[in-house]
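Researcher: Here's the sequence for the chain we discussed earlier.
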Amino acid sequence: MRKVLSVLNILVCVFSLYGFRSMPQASASEVVILNRSDQPTLKITDGDTIHLQIKLSQALPKEELITFTLGEQGSVVGTCIIAAEKDTCQTESFLSLGWYWGVDGTAQKSRVVNAHDSGNNPLGQSDALQVLPRPVVLVHGFISTWDTWKPYLGPDGFLSPLGLRGFAVGDGQVDGVMDTGSLTKPTGRTNSIAQNAEIEGQYIDGVKKATGAEMVDLVGHSMGGMISRYYIDRVMKERDVAQLIMLGSPMGGSDCSVLPATLGFYLPASIEIRQSYMQGVFNNQITHRHGVEFYDLGGTPILEPFKSPCTDVPNDTVVSFGSINAIELNSEQIEVIHSELTYSDFAFEKFVQPLLQKSAGTFNVGADPKPTTARSESLQFTRVYKGKVDQGGSTELTINIDPNVTVASFALFDPTRSVTVSVVGASGKEIPLDTDKNGFVQVDDPSSMIYLGYGFANPKAGLWRVTVHASDSTPAEGADFAVSVYFVGGAVLRAQSSTLIPKLGEEVQLSAEVSMSGQALEIKQAQAVIRDPDGNVEVLEFPAGKSISAVWKPKTPGAHGVDIIVTSAATDGAPVERTAFLSVEVQPNPSQFQVTGNLVLVIGLAVFVLGLILFAFVRTLRKVALLKK
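Model: Thanks. This is the structure I predict for it:
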């Protein structure tokens, strides 16, 4: 027996000499959570940057992979390798996204991190870590304010039962008020998307300081999603957005915005929403996501073209589902109109809430998409008819519908939301407007780009009369209005600009042609109505012909609306009228100060280089002189 014990003792010594030691016990291991400053912490906000560290009771004889998990059966949140003859390692820094939420959507206010070796043997766990939820920043859209988010805020709001704190840009909780258009000052200049994105950044900084959070969730309605995209791409210095959740944000724009723009209202915001601006300018430049995933919910209650006032179907009255998906993102649809998306509890429960409750391991890296190009085929519109109706009065419009049109859809914008309409068809008979037969819709939300919408399938060709009537609620000063009509079928106008991002004074060639059934039509009259960001209008006349062009030189930087309005005739002589709504972003030239500064920099570098050459030359001469001695 003593011999056996002696042999065993010898074997133990040999094993010890050659390093075959067992892993330390879990109770002797220390698992620590470190914040971004490399300090141990027992409290974080979901999304904070952290890393994990383990320290064993003794060094290991060989390299060992350590795996950290969130909770006993939680997902893997990090790994590190303890080198041979070492007793500690720590993970790379990472974002603790989803740590506040369990896989079942329940709040996890306390978390424990477990460590395992390569054989999945437990090595130890951290002390309990307190986790706070990320704040939610809500970004309003066009002609709107923070009030649109009231259903989300307060003790009775959507966010409260989840234990989430909401901040709506402009609500005064922290500094920052965007300007996307004021109902009381429709002709006042709005901020551009870029300017509002800077303000959004100021607001987010305030939220982070007020809460101590390093990350926020962004929820944007309509244009708020476009502003948030710009923030993420151009303004955000270091990633502080967990995800971008959008409601009805037109990633491909909406030509419903040409209605207020034609009246000179809400510029330049009403130009930046245009389909041509979003697809031709914005989406080609704003492409960086810095790892942020994009989500967009599209309303799709309108499925028939004659019920669609000013955009493709399916749509939410002003934003089509095609526009929602104009860039690569995660999208869903719901049968809710555009102006009700922020009020809909169903939209919140179905779409927003599950995203806010995403758990650890479910956040993916949002990859930058490839730049897109403008869509070649656009909706076919007549010109926008604008006018004013006095209190107690009416104004009649005459609108031509050409042959072969299968759908004529009308949209009316009235910021006072007080007028009514009557329609007399080409037959001379008044047509009662009906929800089922004509898709008649009245949108009372002032932030919407339309007030009334209605349409007709297979309308009779000829002159139609639309009369806009004042009502008892029309203001004493009257009501300005704009009416657009888009056609399916009939003639097709194709118009383009030689560049969408010209410089000041650069020659821009505008061109257009009209065809019907593949045959080019003679354009009898055409003009480009060019509206700059301040509302100033320049009219450029085109010569007649089948393929027309004219040159324009921009004088003001910023977003410009370019409406190319043509009058032609069908092969049977019937009049044809079409308008293309283009947009360009005029680039400012460098200021004299910038030019002077660049010149000084170049001269300074030249002097520095010459100095180095001279210094080297002198040193060479000295060496030669010494050698001669």
